[in-house]
Amino acid sequence: MTTAAVSSAHHPTARLRAAGAALASLGGMALAVQGRVNGQLGHQIHDGVLAALISFSVGSVLLLAALPILPAARAGVGRLRESLRQGALRPWQLLGGTCGAFLVTTQGLTVSILGVAVFTVAVVAGQVVSSLPVDRAGLGPGGPQPITLPRALGALLAVAAVIVSVADHGVVTDPGGLWLAALPAVAGLGLAWQTAVNGQVRQAAGNVVVPTVVNFLMGTSALVIAAVVDVLIRGLPDSMPTQWWLYTGGTMGIVAILTAVTAVRVTGVLLLGMSSVAGQLTGALLLDVFLPTTGSDLSVMSVVGIGMTMVAVGIAAIRVRGR
Fold first, then answer.
1. What radius of gyration, in Å, describes the C-alpha atoms of the chain?
2. CB atoms inside a 10 Å sphere around CB 98
3. Pick from 204, 206, 287, 312: CA 20 to 30 A from residue 238's CA?
4. How many independent structural domains does the chain possess?
């Protein structure tokens, strides 16, 4: 590798950073598409739990098929096993995928009613709020981080954005429908913890594929148990839809992870996260404009909520310098 290439890798140009940010935004859009796909699948089979299991199972099969041909990932599995044996990593830190399983389940239950835009706003708001105590407790590999004024203000604005977004959906005035927005918000609360423990798994394995595989396997295991209970109570769907694209939710999750892994080398974590959120919100807006679902037509208040959420994430990302 030439000296110029090494310098470019460690000090990416503005053009490379912009390209990385654009790639991360595409990954965020993939997450928005995943929400629509899983929401439609859950709506058609009238079962959000089975829809989530199908999505996670597809992703797990694809990742397990790819693992044998990735030597670095196989070596990472060995390092992860050794970290668990020595106690450097605790077994509960492998359970981040259960939060992802709950998120995908809420997609199947609420997206067809709330729309992708409102769903995404609720998830992002929950994630911003929960990142405060998660960082303060030092659950991630970076150690404890203080709760700063910008992050606290960003969290409050994110909560306000959810209230504004659902104002036209009868959720605020109808207490019986409050769970529709509460479910994705609670799922967002778990995302910060999931990200933190995933960082610990990645640090132990020294590889980005390993925590992805662990997440999908843990999520699939949790969903198998939930699906068994669900089927015993409700029974199996009468029939499964024939549209092939309804079974691509798991691949969208993998696409989002791969784009993040590729982009982070030139963007850094902060710009990556901001770009991904922007992609999620933009993708959600485009889906609800051009491919609206029944009862989820995009409203002015939803657009305002998206704008407020982007501002909230920007404020929360402000880094306060000091001792």
1. 20
2. 19
3. 287
4. 1
The pTM for the full model equals 0.79
pLDDT digits over 167-212, tens only?
665 554 455 555 678 898 899 888 778 877 877 888 888 888 898 8
Name the residue among 217, 210, 213, 202 with its Cα closest to residue 89: 202
* Residue 57 token pair: 């199972």
- Kindly state the average pLDDT of the residues 228-246: 92
| 208: in domain | yes
Residue 37 lies in a domain: yes
Let me know if residue 321 belongs to a domain. no
Question: CA angle at residue 159 from 157 to 161, to 5 degrees?
Answer: 70
Length reported for the chain: 323
**Closest C-alpha among 70, 66, 21 to residue 265:** 21
Tokens 């259960």 — which residue? 98
- The CA–CA distances, whole Å, from 221 to 35, 68, 214 equal 20, 21, 11
User: Which residues span the domain enclosing 86?
Assistant: 20-262+269-316
Per DSSP, the chain holds a count of helices (H) and strands (E) of 11, 0
**Number of neighbours of residue 51 by Cβ within 10 angstroms:** 30
